[in-house]
Amino acid sequence: MFTTPPCMGLDYVVKQLISLRGIAKQLNLVLRLQDGRTVFPGGIDLEDIYTYLKDSHFTEQFGDALTDYPYASYMLRKFTGLCTQPRELGKKIIRHAEKVELHIYRLYILRNAIVHNAGSSPYIQFLAVNLEHYLRGTINAMFYTASMFPVVRSPEEAFQRYLHMYEMLVKELEPTFSIPQGEHRSVESLIEQNKITPSDPMLKAWLKLHK
Description:
By secondary structure, this protein is an all-alpha fold.
């Protein structure tokens, strides 16, 4: 509960980018940027795809190529809107982590029913897949953190560093994150005065680890 929701929060961004890259690769897309360069989004790093999704010329062509694929087109539009607005992306990461936390509580209730009352669920196989996905995402986060901070010497240290990095990263995107509700107004005022600017350098650094 302490580590998995934040790990899955950032995993949302990674998975969206991997999906879009897979679609581009499957369709063998070659798209043009505003500066005239051409790119093959199916064969580039996640950080590059994330950056290109802020290029309206790139996303317009990408969207045109997905005309025959309504769900993929919807996913592209939805995620592109987040990529161009750091605060909205930060809020999405926060909401996703919160949903994972709630789901883990549900899974733990089911675990107790199985252990103490020999209970079960008709969705047990689906829920087991969820657990495996959470486990993989959490372990991946541990290894990526270790690659970002070579001084890490244990899983516990890796997760402590990840949680610290996650808080700074999300706060960079959404400056009101982890701040008491009563203090939001003062932060909003600083944002309006351009004394605080929501940004994504730390997110880009995290995505750069994912090839």
